[in-house]
Amino acid sequence: MSPKTIKFEIVTPERVVLSQEILQITVPTTSGEITVLPDHIPLVSVLKPGVIEVKRADNSSEIISVSGGFIEVTKDKVVILADTAERAEELDEEMIKEAQQRAEKLKEEARNVDDVQFTAVAAKLEKEMARLRAVSRWRRLKGTDNK
Amino acid sequence: MAKTKEISRRIKSVTSTKKITKAMEMVAAAKMRKAIEAVLKTRRYASLSWETVLRLAVLEKSKNDEAHPLLAPRREVKTAAVILITSNRGMCGGYNTAVINKAEQSLKRYSDVKTDFILAGKKGASVHQHGHLVTAEFEKNDILNDVNDIYPIVKMALNDYLSGKYDKIFVAYTDFVNPAKQIARVKQLLPVKTEKIDSYLGAASPTDKTESEVSPGIEPGAPLIEYTFEPSPREVLDMMIPRLLEIQLYQAFLEANASEHSARMTAMHQATEAANDMVSELTLFYNKARQAGITAEIAEISAGANALAE
User: Fold this and answer.
1) B295 in catalytic set
2) What integer best gives the mean pLDDT of chain B?
3) Domain span holding position B148
4) What local confidence, expressed as pLDDT, does residue B299 receive?
5) Are A46 and B239 within 8 A, CB to CB?
6) Same domain for B293 and B206?
């Protein structure tokens, strides 16, 4: 018997990032990382910036970086409403590092400006960090696949 | 001679009007493409998040007293506010009239409720004449950059609702179906209405579905889903509901913008066509008048020549 799968969809205001049948998903919530398998109890939780790991039925994985949002688990479906999300294979490490440095610099400058701006920059930095973590995890994953 | 001069002056003026309408059509077409792209991109997110809100609202309603303030229905409705989304400029056919009429019409059902208007877009100001109070007027960009653009409106609506100033909040906007068809709609934003008739925003897809197909809502007999909330229901809902409402309103703005530019493009296209017709008609008149002038002149000359020869 083929293993049980669950329908998964991750969308941002800009696009549908991924929509397919999956075996399991690991997401970073504000109260810690959780893994959702089929037949999970209905759940609503808040995401924090981090890395989502998805396992497909053919045992391949997908790494997605997310900058925050919500997850809703129902009986037959997992829906993630993300603020922004990118698949690791779409990300370029060099560009992220640059963006991260820019954000870091802005954060230093913004520290003595005002709260709103500082929060915005801090959020941006966290987003870049999440993207970077996603890429490095994707690299590791690919590396083991090639051996 | 005086007649041909007059006609040629009219031809000139119609031609220059045509140039303007043609240019406006082009501008509207470019803006429309951008606006349509934006509206289609967010539709999936908006509809998924609205489904989530609906499910949560059904769950919260069953709890009665401890329901989240944004989801709990109010027993008495005395005041309401309508967020009216219109265009900043005219020249877009019946676009503004349609949405204002629709708002007026749906307010008739609530005749005993005092209704205020919150405007986005300059053309909405005409509701003054219908005797409604306008509490705020927000600026609206022709192309929205991101959700932050409408944040002030969301914040005002939420605050006024939570403070009890308004018991219901509606949004009147124009749903974008396709470049040739837009439908003015009024949707209840707060409190979240779970009955089947109230479909989510952006429901009208480019394929032009009928009303019944696009109203998923929640079936009255659907089983309640008992969600687990992490960290706690209150914390999750406090973060989630305002954000999702923001998205709904954002979607309404995007729909309205796409509709506005489409409407303007169509209106300007028609104006250009009309100007074309007019120019060709006037040219015909001009030629006839010129010909008549020439004929008369020749007749005069030959008459003169005849008189001399005799």
Assistant:
1) no
2) 81
3) 32-264
4) 94
5) yes
6) no
